[in-house]
Please model this.
Amino acid sequence: MNGTTSRMARRVFSLGSAGIAAARRAPNGSTWLAASPRLLSTAASAGGEVTAAPKGEEKAVASYWGVAPAKLIKEDGTEWKWNCFKPWDTYSSDLSIDLQKHHVPTTLGEKMALGLVKALRLPTDIFFQRRYGCRAMMLETVAAVPGMVGGMMLHLQSLRRFEHSGGWIRALLEEAENERMHLMTFMEVSKPRWYERALVVAVQGVFFNVYFAAYLLSPKLAHRVVGYLEEEAIHSYTEFLKDLEEGKIENVPAPAIAIDYWRLPADATLKDVVMVIRADEAHHRDVNHFASDIHYQGRELRELPAPVGYH
Model:
């Protein structure tokens, strides 16, 4: 057995720095980026010893386990520089989505959910006023929590019940990741002050635990609250756009991370970024109201296919 394992290891590591050239296609069929993995830039023996790479080649960490990062190359020949997301995670935002849609509350629980969201908006307006860059940064640290909590809860439920989730785990985690990328983008635009960072820590600590408890007690209300939060986010970004168009906020060039993540043109501006982020929030609004409707009908999320890739 040891001899077989040793032979297999030697075959894997014998690929060395030559690697395997491969072009990767994004899930939506886009070929605007190509990946060219270089499996190892060092040679390793079956025992885990690493020898120096040939002179002139970039050194990479290689071990007995054969774990080495792929080197991704854009179509223009430049190297993909982002580690926080990959080419196949990128997409072009759908700006045609209806921004005016609103779920009219009918039950007492829904009216309380909407009232809670409206009440939470008041201290936010007072604290940030019209500093929309900082406001957006703060909101995104909170907005990325529900998808993670919901995905985690469904993941554990799937394990307990020995059943699939209908894709909802992936859809909710996709939402959380998308909101996190909003934050990474605004971090390039607005540098938070120390007390704003402290506020984020406090708010996130409270919100995570409150939302976790709410999801345990009533997933349908938890998703409804998020749907209403996203409606408020759309309003905030619309006000942000107004200030940009009126010149109250400088329409600076879009951060490089945003251009690559949303596949924006090279000359994109902050206004373009705000527009795609607002569209993302509208999609999250739809997903969470849809999830809440499923629960209100007395069904489970897994019974209907999840909108994976809907953003």
Q: What stands out?
A: The chain is about 55% helix and 0% strand. The longest strand covers residues 33-35. The two ends are 47 Å apart (CA to CA).
